[in-house]
């Protein structure tokens, strides 16, 4: 993959052709819907933790949604006796992660190859998390937000969505972005910006409510890759939703940007 041809610098993201079977993507969405249609009490038994699990944010939250995170570590553990719906969902998610390790590695190398060792790249691939999201239907309000403006932690691969509403902030304007057929959407988060030494800015994005999503809700599948041995210093600088909510990171120099991070292993660029 060629960085220049992908156009990341021109509009903040890349659409990359892929060979993932459409039926697999459709099956992932279908099995996710079957899972999240189960009672909330059952879903909450899959406690959200570092390796994955279920997360619920109720109607009182400005980010009303439910998620399930999978990592290879999470789904290779035997937590409890699952029902058939759970097993069908977990098995297809597990297979998807295993089958797309090569793609994940290529994405990490795209942003971070000049800054990370081969071992660190492999570690990033193995710690990848697949995230399933569901935004329930709600009353339509002009300008309503499903997901507030934010930047992601690492690098994000956006596999699919079943409704409109995804927007990016670019050149001080919010722009609608819809998935291209037979392509994945890839964009850097904070670690993508850090390990590219600010060559590529972490893309600020949000999800808005539309008449379609207000009636039917919204499902999507993304993959989070968190490379390297640094992390954003939330303790000193606050949540990224406030620190970089309007693309404040887009033109920052790396010598200033790296001050927002703390090392996990006493190693910095």
Number of strands: 13
Q: Which oligomeric form is depicted?
A: single chain
Q: Radius of gyration, Cα only, in angstroms?
A: 18 Å
Q: For the record, what is the CATH homologous superfamily label?
A: B-lactam Antibiotic, Isopenicillin N Synthase, Chain
Low-confidence stretches: none
CATH fold description = Jelly Rolls
Note the beta-strand portion.
Answer: 25-35%
Largest sheet: 7 strands, antiparallel
Q: How do the helices and strands follow one another from N- to C-terminus?
A: HHEHHEEHHHHEEEEEEHEHEEHHHE
Indicate how many domains the architecture comprises: 1
The helix count comes to: 13
Tell me which CATH architecture applies here: Sandwich
Query: For the largest beta sheet, what order do the strands appear in spatially?
Result: 1-9-6-11-4-3-2
Indicate the CATH class: Mainly Beta
State the separation between the terminal residues, measured CA to CA.
24 Å
The assigned structural class equals: alpha+beta
Mean pLDDT: 90
The helix fraction, in percent, is 25-40%
Structural shape: globular
């Amino acid at each position: 993959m060629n960085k220049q041809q992908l156009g990341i610098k021109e509009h903040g993201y890349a659409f990359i052709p892929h060979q993932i079977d459409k039926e697999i993507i459709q099956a992932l969405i279908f099995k996710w819907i079957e899972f999240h249609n189960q009672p909330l009490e059952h879903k909450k038994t899959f406690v959200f933790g570092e390796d994955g699990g279920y997360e619920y944010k109720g109607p009182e939250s400005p980010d009303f949604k439910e998620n399930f995170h999978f990592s290879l570590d999470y789904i290779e553990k035997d937590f409890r006796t699952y029902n058939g719906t759970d097993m069908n969902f977990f098995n297809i998610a597990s297979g998807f992660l295993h089958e797309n390790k090569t793609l994940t590695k290529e994405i990490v190398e795209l942003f971070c190859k000049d800054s990370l060792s081969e071992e660190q790249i492999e570690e990033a691939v193995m710690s990848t998390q697949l995230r399933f999201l569901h935004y329930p239907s709600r009353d339509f309000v002009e300008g309503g937000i499903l997901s507030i403006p934010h930047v992601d932690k690492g690098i994000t691969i956006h596999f699919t969505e079943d409704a409109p509403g995804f927007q990016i902030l670019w050149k001080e304007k919010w722009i609608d972005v819809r998935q291209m057929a037979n392509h994945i959407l890839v964009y850097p988060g904070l670690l993508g910006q850090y390990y590219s030494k600010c060559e590529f800015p972490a893309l600020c994005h949000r999800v808005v409510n539309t008449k379609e999503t207000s009636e039917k809700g919204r499902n999507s599948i993304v993959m989070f890759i968190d490379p390297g041995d640094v992390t954003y210093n939330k303790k000193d600088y606050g949540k990224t939703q406030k620190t970089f909510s309007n693309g404040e990171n887009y033109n920052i120099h790396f010598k200033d940007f790296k001050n927002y991070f703390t090392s996990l292993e006493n190693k910095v660029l």
